[in-house]
Amino acid sequence: MIEKLKTPNIMRASFSTSEDLIGKYINRHGYSDIDPVGKIVGIKSKTIVFVQPVVAGENKTKMEWVVGGFAGHCINQYAQSYDFSEEGEVFEMRLSSKDRYYRISEKPIKYYDYNF
Asked: Fewer CB within 10 Å: C terminus or N terminus of the chain?
């Protein structure tokens, strides 16, 4: 068993960019909240992409609250709706298969957990 601990981790997944990533979105998942990072607009190398920042506007849904929890319980938090806009200058971002916070998606996502 000690021998196994000394061997390198062969199961590590590698990540490599491809042209089909262009036009997809990167979202940051932080515990139960999700925030948009940007839209992939280009590729620099095997792990570095060019990203156009994406910003979420104000929540268009009126949140409904009932008594409960510490201050209240939001009963319609899954109905959140946002408008997104591309703002700011393009930046470089390194992607890794080991990163559990950033995920690639077909659309930008914004979610705030009111009941955390």
From this structure: N
